[in-house]
Write a structure and sequence with these properties.
By secondary structure, the protein is of the alpha/beta class. The protein has two domains: 121 residues, Response regulator (Rossmann fold); 87 residues, Response regulator (Rossmann fold). It has eleven helices and eight strands. The strands form two sheets. Strands 2-1-3-4-5-6 form a six-stranded parallel sheet, sandwiched between helices. A two-stranded antiparallel sheet has the order 7-8. Helix 1 links the parallel strand 1 and strand 2. The longest helix has 14 residues. The C terminus is likely disordered. One of its GO terms (molecular function) is DNA binding. This is Response regulator transcription factor. It comes from Jiangella ureilytica.
Length: 227
Amino acid sequence: MTPSPVRVLVADDQPLLRHSLALLLDAAPDLATAGTAATGDEAVQLTRELRPDVVLMDIRMPGGDGIEATRRITADAALDAVRVLVLSMFELDEYVYAALRAGASGFLLKDARPDELLDAVRRTHAGESLFAPSILTRLVEHYLARPVAPGRDRRRLGTLTERETEVLSLVAGGLSNDEIAAALTISVKTVKSHVGSLLAKLAARDRAQLVIAAYENGLVGSAGQAS
C-alpha cells in the first residue's frame, strides 16, 4: 500500500512564489500541496481547516506576520501534529530566534536549492529540526555567548543516560537520524527511540527544542560540534 503523501500548506504573500512552491511540491511523489495562503491570518485559518502535515511559512506577510501565525498554530492543541518550517529570504538573528520561540521546527533560506527544500519538508514532517548551515552556526554562537544557568533544564539533563546525551549533542549538530545512527554505530530505530525519550524527559515539542536545550546546557562547544 502506497503511503499517503506529506501534505504541505504554502504561506507566502508573493503569488509567483506560492505557485512555484506548489508546483515543486506536487512534482515530488511523496509530497502534495494541501493549500496556499497569502497572509498570516489566512495561514492559521487554513491550517485549522485543512490540517496539513507541514506549513511552509514566510515571515513578512500582511494580515499577521509569519512569526505570529506560527505562534498561533503551535499554541493550538488541536494542531499538535502540524509542524512549521519557516522559509525566509532573511537570516537576521531576531527572525531566527523569534521563529524558534514561536515554535517553528526549522528555518530555511529562500536561496536553498529545490532538493534542499524538499528534503527539509520531509525531515520536518519526520520530526527532525532543520536549519540552514549558516543559521545553525549563529545559533551556536548565540548560546555560547550566554552564561549557562544551573536551572530546571540543567537538572533535567541529569536524568539523561550517557547515550541519550550523545544523541542530544548530535541532534544539536544538525545530524539526521540516519547520520546519528552511522556516527554511533546503532540502528535508526534505536536513534528514534532515544530521540523519543529525550522529547519526553525534556518536555520538548520537537527536535528544534532539543537543539535549544543542548545549546543552553553547554553540550555544543563550537559550531555544530559536541563539547
